[in-house]
Design goal:
Blueprint: H1 4-18, E1 26-27, E2 39-51, E3 56-68, H2 73-90, E4 93-96, E5 99-111, E6 114-126, H3 131-136
Parallel strand pairs: 1-2
Antiparallel strand pairs: 2-3, 3-6, 4-5, 5-6
């Protein structure tokens, strides 16, 4: 089953392919110690689930791909803009657990010289139901 961790890994794979010089500077976990700049951080901001028919569900994941540049003050904003433009192309589709997942929404915002690239993914899942569970809810009434 696809989870937020699988989505983070799929995003990291796409980033490593699109930006090969950053392959060792893509972080999926919050780190307390110093880190090398420029770099990417991938965080799951939110997730939710809605029930569909029977055993079908839809899960929504909101991911924040943060880019922290290491350039002079004048060019940080431009660098973040260029990275955002690339991310729009690269993160439209990701591969997780041999499934292609299309983003439903993307938004880029630069705050305090850090790019926040917010991307939404929607995943439809089908949970397996044990046959015993279905039968356990059947009641039989007989009139004589």
């Amino acid at each position: 089953m696809i989870t937020g961790d699988y989505i983070k890994s799929a995003i990291a794979t796409k980033l490593a392919t699109a930006f090969p010089t950053f392959s060792d500077k893509i972080y999926k976990e919050r780190i307390a110690q110093e880190f090398d700049k420029p770099c990417f951080f991938i965080w799951q901001v939110d997730s939710s689930q809605t029930k569909g028919i029977d055993n079908r569900y839809t899960r929504y994941y909101i991911m924040d791909v943060r880019y922290i540049p290491d350039m002079s003050e004048e060019s940080k904003f431009e660098e973040c803009q260029n990275i955002a433009n690339t991310l729009y192309e690269e993160l439209e589709y990701i591969e997780a657990e041999s499934a292609s997942i299309k983003s439903t929404s993307m938004h880029a915002e630069i705050t305090d010289d850090i790019l926040h690239f917010i991307v939404h993914y929607k995943i439809r899942i089908q949970k397996s139901i044990e046959a015993e569970d279905k039968i356990a809810h059947i009641t039989l009434e007989v009139e004589l």
